[in-house]
């Protein structure tokens, strides 16, 4: 992300947040396509871009919070609501609503992608388990606990 100067008004950061969250949503959709196709190389290529966009969102939210604080409001989401209620900017309310909606959509898509990752992981663990040699039965060790290891049999030399 390019260096963004501190916002004079919360709306300045909000416009950039809308742009970045839209880009993040696009990356999450691509991520889902790669997950469905089990395209590990595609996923690997997306990871730095996704991380950068998430970082950009955090920076922009911080800038918005700072602008709210400088305007005399709480430096948090509740401050944004108060700023909007005070008539902060005519385009701010619909833009804020859109940013919130895009954020909810991104969180849901990220949750779904996490579910796909869990299913892939479970499938991979099942495949690995199938490749392991079967145990030869249970044996009990000196402590009385079951073990899958073969008991040692010594011999007496006489």
Provide the CATH architecture. Up-down Bundle
Q: Give the beta-strand count.
A: 2
Fraction of helical residues: 55-70%
Query: Which of globular, elongated, flat, extended, rod-shaped describes the shape?
Result: elongated
Strand content: under 5%
Mean pLDDT reading? 83
Per CATH, the superfamily is FlgN-like
Number of domains: 1
CATH class, named: Mainly Alpha
CATH topology: Methane Monooxygenase Hydroxylase, Chain G, domain 1
Mind explaining what this structure looks like?
The chain contains 4 helices and 2 strands; from the N terminus they run ααααββ. By secondary structure, it is mostly helical. It has a single domain (10-132), classed as Methane Monooxygenase Hydroxylase, Chain G, domain 1. It has a two-stranded antiparallel ribbon with strand order 1-2. A hairpin with a 5-residue loop joins β1 and β2 (146-147). α1 runs antiparallel to α2 (40-70). The longest helix is centred in the C-terminal third of the chain and has 40 residues, at 92-131.
